[in-house]
Amino acid sequence: MEGGLGDGTDIWESENRNKAYLRRGFIMSEQEEKLIQVRVSSDGLAAYVKVSPNKGQMITYEDIKAELEANQVVYGIDEEIIREIINEKRYFIEVQVASGEEPEDGKDGYYEYLFDVDVDLKPKILKDGSVDYKSMGEVPVVQENQELVRYHRSTSPINGMNVRGEEIVGKKGKDLMVLKGKGFLLSEDKTLYRAALIGKAVAKNGSLVVTNVLEIDGDVSISTGGVNFAGDVIIRGNVLAGTEVRAHGSIEVNGCVEAATLVAGKNVLLKNGMQGNGKGSICAGKDVSGKFFEQVNIKAKGNVSANAIMNCDITCEDAISVSGRFGIIVGGRVTAMREIEATLIGNMNETKTVLEVGTREDLYTKMHHLEQECKEIIAELTKYANNLEKIERKIKENGTSKEMQEVKMNVMRSKIEKEAKLSDLEKQKEKVIEDIGKTSNARVIVLKSIYPGTRLIINGVTENIKTENYNSTYQRKGVEIGFTPNI
User: Fold this and answer.
1) Residue 273 burial by CB count (10 A; 0-12/13-18/19+): exposed, middle or buried?
2) Are 381 and 435 in the same domain?
């Protein structure tokens, strides 16, 4: 019990207060000294009472309620606490007697992804600089009608109330935009996304895309038959000799590949490489990568990368990179438009190895011829347009005849054919411009050693390596091939 009436403490405190006031030069009357102080917190969510009665005076429940009302405290009053103040004589201390209710802000809407969206598709670089293709993440494959994403809508706020009975408005939650993309079905209430087909699911930057993927758990062999699929193909096992795998998308093989045929509209990734035995081949619309390639014929419109290339015939329209401390190109013929980079090229046995970068074709002459053809066709198209105008005038003046209609149709047919030819020439020009950009700085980069027995062909100029050279870059300089040390 804190210093209440009847235990003598209140008399002592009252006398001391009177002495303090006397020192300040004034005296409080007993009526003034009877005090009920009310304090409301700055946020209005709590009200406190401090009761300081004079000796002989009684503070009642009604007195405190009246003082609270006078201070506009009308909500969340704890009647029991007020009674405790009176009954237990909890004087000269501040006691909380009313509590407001804080508002509860609404929650923002959010997407719950029901499949793994954080797949690492990049290979790891090992300490020796080679690439660990086995480390690449597994592509998530979803089934038709599988739930992919669930949207949780924003929630409304729950308003609060301060001790003065005033409403405190909470913050409203925000909703997110509907996911864009393809390959999924969206529920009517726009909260559930399902896969529209079996495929590969990718979620990124507010979009969801499901593309066709055929997943084969075991091997592909003559007994299982070949594969021909409109989307991507993922083979968990091996691809054995004599089989053929075709995909409009990409091909990924986790096991080994023997003397098989792989044809992809996009990329080819072999996590354990390929031993083609002189009969295996790869044709890719984009990049080809693998741990190693031995006795394989490769054609790629993009890049080729590996840790070793041995006795292969490779043609790519961009760059070839062979990485790692023992990254080697030995034997066969390797051709790239932009550059070839390897740690080792050839070997001490002087195995015949041919590397070609750039092009032997005179691209500037080819561009000149294409431009001349375009000018001739444009001139012919102008004539066709003029002829059609004349035919239209004659038809308007003399009326339509079967003979005139046939003449008009022949002119229009010839015009359409020339327009198609012009479009094809323009595409050829774009390709030549792209090739000029790639071949203008064509080079062979040797990170460690290049051995005799190697032949370099750079933009049509040939150089036979006669002595071992180290850490150098080879480029055409005029009518010769020169080299400079790598910095």
Assistant:
1) buried
2) yes
- Cα within 13 Å of Cα(290), Cβ side: 28
Structural contact between residues 284 and 267, judged by C-beta atoms closer than 8 angstroms: yes
d(CA 250, CA 266): 5
User: What tokens appear for 69 in the block?
Assistant: 């009302």
Q: Quote the CA–CA distance of 329 and 320 in Å, as a whole number.
A: 10
Tell me the pLDDT tens digit for each residue of 366-389. 888 889 999 999 999 999 999 999
**Measured between alpha carbons, how far is 176 from 153 in angstroms, rounded to an integer?**
8
Q: What is the DSSP string of 217-283?
A: -S-B-TTT--EEESSEEEESS-B-TT-EEEESS-EEESS-B-S-EEEESS-EEETT-EEEEEEEEEE
The domain in which residue 133 lies consists of 110-210
Name the 3-class secondary structure at 394: helix
How far apart are alpha carbons 361 and 364 in whole angstroms?
A: 9
**Residue 287 falls within a domain, yes or no?**
no
Task: Tell me which range, 223-232, 254-263, 372-381, is most confidently predicted by mean pLDDT.
Answer: 254-263
E strand segments, 62-109: 94-99
Interacting residues of 432 by C-beta distance below 8 A, sequence separation 6+: 363, 366, 367, 370
Q: Cβ(97)–Cβ(68) under 8 Å?
A: yes
**Number of domains the chain is built from:** 3
Residue with tokens 């003449």: 407
| DSSP codes joined into one string, 197-224 | SSEEEEEETTEEEEEEEEEE-S-B-TTT
Q: Is residue 248 included in any domain, yes or no? A: no
Domain boundary among 422, 439, 456: 439
d(CA 117, CA 129): 28
pLDDT in tens, 36-90: 999 999 999 999 999 988 877 788 999 999 999 999 999 999 999 999 999 999 9
pTM flag (> 0.70): no
The neighbour count for residue 186, using CB atoms within 10 Å, is 16
